[in-house]
Each structure stands twice: as structure tokens, then as C-alpha cells.
Amino acid sequence: MERTENTENRPSKKKSEVNERKKPTTSTKSKTKVRKKKRRKLTKEQIRLREKKRRVRNIIEIIKFSLPILIVTILVFLFILNTSPHMVEGNSMNPTLKNKDRVIVRRTKEINRYDVITFKPPVASEFQYVKRVIGMPGDLIWLEDKYLFINQQTTTIPKDLTFANQLPDGTIKVNISKDATEQLTEMKDS
Q1: 31, 131, 146, 173: which is the annotated catalytic residue?
Q2: What is the average pLDDT across 25-50?
């Protein structure tokens, strides 16, 4: 009797499975040796190129590290050159600046109206004055009662100013304290 096989129900074997069974087993040591790449000898030109690339990478890394430090150093240096610390002595700038306040002053040659400035006093002193600029060259400044008037458009002091609408155009009227009025009057007389 002949034997017939039904191949439809039987799982088929793939070629890869058959090939795997036929491969001899090797130890782990021999596998690592097989996988290890053989190093080929480099020519002198290739060695020089690799060294040059390595040097370029090192230089780029140094620049990446030192550039931010250099920029911050330059900014700090410029800040120190253009500013100076100052301690306020006295109460003449109250309430803006109080006695013993510490401020950083930016050095500049351009002064505008209402800037707070420091300057050496006309008398010998170890301290600098801190004052607000209220008048500019060419301004007319006068004092009446407890008011300080500043006008940059007129050349003569108007008489009998009782109402605000009688002030010349461009006049600024500032209410000042009694102490400031006395100090200004003393300066005017001397």
C-alpha cells in the first residue's frame, strides 16, 4: 500500500528554519571574533586629515565656551566705564532720594530738563551734589512767594502774576517749600 500525505494540514517548513538547523553551533568567543572589525592601516595623509579635523573641532569647542564669557566681560566692562556708584548725602532731594540712599549714576555729556545729576560743588567738599535740572541755558527763572517760575520763551519777568491765565506762554509754575525759598533767596542776594 502506498502511503499518501496530506500537505494541506501539515505546517510547512521554511527554508530559513531548515538552514538554521544545519548551522553548527559555535561558542560565544568565536562569535565575538567574527563580528569584530579588522582595523585597516591608515595612510599618513588620512592620519593628518583626522588630526586636522580633531584640532578644528577642539578650536570650535573652545570658541563656543569662551565667546559667551567674553561677551559678558565686555558688557560688564562697558557698564563699569559708563556708570559710577553714589551715596546721597542730605535731604535736599526728598522724597525722590532720601539721605544715605545709594544710586548708580550713568555718565553722560547730554543733560536734559528734569534729569537728576551729580556734580562737584563749587566749595571744597568730599561729597558730590545730587540735584534735579529744572532750567536749561536760555531759560528765565524767577521766584515769587512760594512759587518758582520757569519760562523758556520770554526774556523779561512779568509783574503782578495773580492768576494762572496771566502767565506767559510756556511758563512752568512750581510750588516749593519754605526752606527752599529761603535758600534760593540767599543765593539770589549773594
Answers
A1: 131
A2: 70
Element (H, E) at 141: strand 140-144
Q: What are phi and psi of 84, to 5 degrees?
A: -150, 145
Please choose, from the candidates 154, 150, 140, 164, the residue with its C-alpha nearest in 3D space to the C-alpha of residue 114: 150
AA letter at 73: T
Per-residue pLDDT reduced to its tens digit, 90-144: 888 888 888 888 888 888 888 888 888 888 888 887 778 888 888 888 778 777 7
Catalytic annotation present for 64: no
Q: Which residues pair with 149 in a beta bridge?
A: 142, 173
**In the chain, what percentage of residues exceed pLDDT 90?**
16
Q: Inform me whether the pLDDT recorded for 4 exceeds 60.
A: no
DSSP string, 72-88: HHHHHHHHHHHEEEEE-
pTM above 0.90, yes or no: no
Nearest one of 183, 178, 186, 172 to 114, comparing CA atoms: 172
Q: Is the pLDDT of residue 35 over 90?
A: no
33 is catalytic: no
